[in-house]
Amino acid sequence: MAQAVAKAPPQPPSRRRTPGAPRRRTGATPRRTGATPRRLPYLLIAPAVLLMLGFIAYPVVSVFYYSLRHHNPTKPWRDGFAGFDNFVTAFTDDPQFWQTLGFSLQWVAVEVVLQLLLGLGLALIVNQTFIGRAMARALVFSPWAVSGVLTSTIWLLIFNSQTGITRYLADLGIGSYGTSWLSDTGTVFPAVVVAELWRGVPFFAILILADLQSVSKDLYEAAEVDGASRFRQFFHITLPHLKDAIILSTLLRAVWEFNNVDLLYTLTGGGPAGETTTLPLRIASIAVDSHDFGYASALTSIAFVILLFCSMVYLRLSKFGGGQEK
Predict the structure, then answer these.
(1) Is 70 helix (H, G, I), strand (E, B) or coil?
(2) Nearest to 203 by CA among 135, 111, 105, 303
(3) What are the phi and psi torsion angles at 291 (to 5°)?
(4) Nearest to 194 by CA among 110, 102, 280, 104
(5) What is the C-alpha radius of gyration for the chain, rounded to an integer number of angstroms?
(6) What's the longest Cα–Cα distance across the chain?
């Protein structure tokens, strides 16, 4: 009898759910709270960071490295560690460094101030409602779409002594035939300033006009009800609203004008007699013509420090991003 009875296999212990505990679905995999989700954003931006390190950080580090060396491919026997000799030479034994630095600062100050004033005026004009406003905006912004080389070519033709504006002025009895404003030390600076104004003014006009579009009309209507004139509306409503846009645009344009090479190099080549040679033009001449990459790198490092210091001081004094004053 005992042999006929089959032994039942042992049953697994029953899993009794604790009252109040959430029901677990069959086949559901538990969530893993690993580090991968936290690292995912960094993994996504890693390619862009690597490209920035390759195209930005590496050249900057290379410039600082070569600034501490004597490096001339045409005279390799002189290559070697120089320490701060290149910087000492720039500040003590190179009078052209101070001359070109002074002209660079003069160039930046004149260009940025005039471009800001003219760009602000044009932005206020094309912000008004009048017939043909779209065409006027297109004409104002069109010089900004022209490349630097093409801009230089246009103004070379305008300043040409045989076919340019000086010939037509001579026909009217103003000046003499064969006069070239770009080869005269008395007229070369105003000539290149006008050429750069034609290209730079639209930059300010675009940024300022874009910010003017966000000014609430209610502010001007309330000011008119209170009896405020257009002059007071401009200084108490428009300018405070444009503060950050003006600060940012002037800073960007100052850096670009300091590093301006294409227009000045094409129009004058730094002449006549070095009257229009900026520090970047001087650096390009030393590196390309003299092949002295060590000294050129030292001048580049000095220019970088000057721009960085001036930018920090300017942003600090202007309180960029601090909001409008009440």
Answers:
(1) strand
(2) 111
(3) 60, 25
(4) 110
(5) 33
(6) 141
pLDDT profile of the chain (326 residues), mean per 10: 50 54 54 67 89 86 92 86 92 92 94 95 90 89 86 89 83 79 88 93 92 86 85 87 91 93 88 88 91 93 94 88 55
Please report the DSSP string for 7-36 in residue order. PPPPPPPP-PPPTTPPPPPTTPPPP---SH
Instruction: Tell me the C-alpha distance between 186 and 188, whole Å.
Output: 6
What residues contact residue 112 under an 8 Å CB cut-off, 6+ apart? 250, 253, 254, 257
Phi, psi of 69 (to 5 degrees): -135, 160
Q: Give the whole-angstrom CA distance, residue 30 versus residue 299.
A: 62
Beta bridge partners of 80: 70
Question: Which class for 198: exposed (0-12), middle (13-18), buried (19 or more C-beta within 10 A)?
Answer: middle
* In the chain, alpha helices (H): 36-52, 58-66, 85-88, 95-126, 133-141, 148-158, 165-171, 188-212, 217-225, 230-233, 239-241, 243-258, 262-267, 279-288, 293-318
Measure the CA–CA gap between 147 and 128, rounded to whole angstroms. 29
Q: Please state whether the predicted TM-score (pTM) of the whole model is above 0.90.
A: no
Q: How far apart are CA 304 and CA 60, in angstroms?
A: 10
Please state, in angstroms and as integers, the Cα–Cα distance from residue 236 to each residue in 25, 108, 284, following that order: 66, 28, 46
**81 membership: H or E segment, kind and range:** strand 80-81
